[in-house]
Amino acid sequence: MRLDDSSLLASLHDGMFQQPLWHDFLERLRGRLQVLYAGLTFDPPHETGLVALHAGPVTSLNLGNIFTDNDLQSSKPRRPMREGRVYALGELIDPDDAARNAWREEELLPIGIEDLRAVRVAEESGVNAWLCCGGRHLSSSATSLLTALAPHLRIAMRGFVALERERLRSSLASEAFGRLNFGWLTLDAQCRILDMTAHVDQLFQRNGLLRRGRYDRLTPASPDLDRELTALVKRFAQDADARPHAVNLSRDPRMDMLVAPFRGGSVAAGNAPAAIVYLSGDRSSQADRCEQLVELFGLLPSEARLAWEIAQGIPIAEAAANLNLTVETARNYSKKIYAKMGARGQAELVRIILSSVLAIA
């Protein structure tokens, strides 16, 4: 059976990017064989249960009943499908299996599915997929076509599993970046944003210091910083070994930016990235953090303000001046702070605060 005389293969390999998945492929398969039903069933990675896709005027069939042992109880075990071999409906339902024969009589025959062909493929990670077609009378061409499609389906499922794995990793990484109030974005030589993590927009909105401007350009609110950023990115576009540059954008709430040359090539990219910008910001103001310290550790408001200053690495004398306290008063406060928080000094105080829920608040 020739596969190059239709768009079946193209739609099969493109199907993982469609919504619904593999819709065009199943429609083309049904039209090619002139059958009532074409379906693709698989057990997706990282999830429980089967995904059942179909094309045709009939409703989706619960084919997990004959492909797996998940749904119907039977006194006899279901015959396992050998990978790559095409099976007819009569081979998949044992004559003595009352439950599956009843399902065939009640669900398949009333909608005109008298015959069926199915093939199973197994992707190397363990994901199984079943491709099938059903109608009144199926010829040997259905068996030939499913046999020819099986190795291509295996490759398509391998790509789908790899894509789903990367989607999961990306989702987990994005969630972690969000909890750490961290994000990144890549810029071309004209400072246009090419890609960014999902939480960068939230960092933009939090303080208005940066925004996505006209033509997707990263635009700082400060004209001086805009000129500095433009010069940096132009230099990085010409010299990938140039030193990264760090900028404090705001102290309360804190937001920092590190601009570095982009050193990772990509054959899939359109405009080549010239720079990568890392952003780290705090969700809360200093006043919010002090209030949270009061709630977490039972500090007085005055003690909480001093604790937050000390946690930023500020010397006790400078912290006292910032808070209009005498050094002696600040030292007395610090003793009470360490006792309430169970810290034996400034280093341990910083560790306790950074390992508390304040790190993700």
UniProtKB/TrEMBL annotation:
GO biological process: regulation of DNA-templated transcription
Lineage: Bacteria, Pseudomonadati, Pseudomonadota, Alphaproteobacteria, Sphingomonadales
Name of this protein: Helix-turn-helix transcriptional regulator
Domain HTH luxR-type: 296-353
Organism of this sequence: Sphingobium limneticum
SUPFAM superfamilies per UniProt: C-terminal effector domain of the bipartite response regulators
GO MF, one annotated term: DNA binding
Highest taxon of source: Bacteria
